Amino acid sequence: MEFTLKTFIFYGFALMTVASALLVVTVRNIVHAAFSLMVTLFGVAGLYVFLQADFLAATQVIVYVGGILVLILFGVMMTSGRLEMRIHIERGQLLLGGAVALALLMLLLTVIANTPAWKNRIDDGTELQPTTERIGELILNGPFLLPFEVVSVLLLVALIGAALISRKEVRD
Amino acid sequence: MSDFRAMFTGFPNFNVSEGFFPNINLQEKLNWAEEFIQNVLMPRLPEAVAAHFPVELGTTLVMFACAGIFVAVVPLLPLVLVLAERKVAARFQNRTGPMRVGPWGTLQTLADGIKLIFKEDFIPPQGDRFLFLLAPYVIFACSFAVFAAIPFGQNILVSDFNIGIFYIMAISSVIVMGVIMAGWSSNSKWSLLGSLRSAAQIVSYEIPLGLSILTIVMLVESLSMREIVDSQSNGVFSWLIFRSPFTFIAFFIFFISAIAEVNRTPFDLPEAESEIVAGFHTEYSGMRFALFFIAEYANMFAVSAIAVTLFLGGWEGALPGYDILGGMPGFVIKTLALVFLMMWLRWTLPRLRVDQLMNLCWKYFIPIAFFNILGTGIWGLIFEEDSVWSIGISCAIIYIGLISAYMIAGRVMAQKPEPQPSSA
């Protein structure tokens, strides 16, 4: 077993992801959970880099950490009291959550099992190309053009909806 | 283990004894540290030593050493910039600025820094201790990680990412998290308000910023910082700012949004001292406060450096082929000129109100940025290759646009001071 620096870094990222993900679900304070979610997302971005998906890694950070997580924290800070923001868990939620987690685990294991030999993707000698150009081709000039456009229309509708809801009603 | 594998048909046939990811090559080519070890250091070692030389470990150590030098040198920039800011401010207000420590006060920042190190490190007892301690490091680390992708000169670049500019955007978007962390964990209303303002502002202005970067990416057809600079190597008229009228507009949108991103006047609402004391770092003292301060000035330099790389030719000179010392002095001069512009704006303009800030971003910058993208697309369709024609037409349009803008502005200014007729 060749234990290179990169292997070391890989395990570092893996440990970081798993440990912080555990923290997200076990910690009682919701803001702490949000911040450890940040570490998890970073760890996953690091793992993407190891899969040669550099564009995806940066997108992960920009969308989830820079966007969605900030929105979550905004929501928490605008709506709740201060430091003593706690989560109460009831038994029914626990059961439901456990069932969903189990289903997700089975799904992920199936996907892992059916991924065709992903180790060989790195070892078979073909140089891996930067992904940015291929992603661009696929989305804007290839089979994913229609889904891409549909998603952008969906997002536009969501944007207009949000603006409509948050808008003050003008009464005359 | 074998039972587990039998559960699924077609399980990937990796051998556990080999390790999960036995040999991960991030890139096939040698990196510079490995190159240094193998081509410079190894031939000079005695053969007996060279045979057992741990290349992997050596590479790691060289990389760590370089990172150490980097982290030691980059804080010197803020050291200079803080003094420059105080001197510039002084000139603007007809003062002399710091004059006592060292010749013309040049050692003032050093003295202040030493003072800050020895100050009490106060931690609010009611706050969230762990996050309070962590927040400065998040901001500091993110603003320094940006420097890894900035090409300071021909070969003075820490890492040439494929996704260079996108990486910079991703990393700098994490700074918001540090700001929120600092504001929330201080358990003070000033801090919280400041951090919320800052987060709203940074998230908003990231959109026009990203869209103006996109116009450049569309023209260059690459995200790599090195390729962006390489495409501007034919003198001042090949700089991307002059390559199409839309990049000219994009430069100004980029620069103004960048000022908002680094929270400087006229966009310094998160730190508005007349309203919320000092914003998100109100509760910080001593060295932790200094970290915020260093990060702020490092950010200021970083965004100017990015603006220079994207729009003003990077390390390429104004004349093709004249790159002194790999172009580094030219790069630094251009960047410092933009930094000076930022200081100039800071000491000239008053602070905006929150609604003005948001209006400027959402009602003006974002539509203009989208218009830019559309225009750049059309421009790219008309002129497939950059030629004398395309650059000539673009410069002519920019010139006419500037002249007409100047004349319209003159008209508007001339109308304004018209006194309201008094009713008496």
Distance between the termini of chain A: 76 Å
Report the structural category of chain B: mainly alpha
Secondary-structure element pattern of chain B, one letter each: HHHHHHHHHHHHHHHHHH
Silhouette of chain B:
globular
Question: Layout of SSEs?
Answer:
The complex is a heterodimer of chains A (172) and B (424).
Chain A lengths: L4 H22 L3 H21 L3 H26 L11 H24 L3 H6 L7 H11 L3 H22 L6
Chain B lengths: L1 H5 L25 H10 L5 H5 L3 H19 L2 H17 L15 H11 L10 H17 L18 H10 L1 H11 L3 H32 L4 H6 L9 H4 L1 H17 L11 H4 L9 H26 L16 H19 L7 H29 L5 H28 L9
If you had to describe this structure to a student in words, what would you say it looks like?
The complex is a heterodimer of chains A (172) and B (424). Chain A has 172 residues and is mainly alpha-helical. Chain A folds into 2 domains: 1-97, Four Helix Bundle (Hemerythrin (Met), subunit A) (Up-down Bundle); 128-172. Chain A has 7 helices and no strands. The termini of chain A are far apart. Mean pLDDT of chain B is 78; it is low at 1-30. Chain B is an all-alpha fold and 424 residues long. Chain B starts with a helix and ends in a 9-residue tail after the last helix. In chain B, helix 6 crosses helix 15 (286-311), helix 7 (129-145) packs parallel to helix 15 (286-311) and helix 13 (245-261) runs antiparallel to helix 15 (286-311). Chains A and B meet through helix 1, helix 2, helix 3, helix 4 and helix 5 of A and helix 4, helix 8, helix 9 and helix 10 of B.
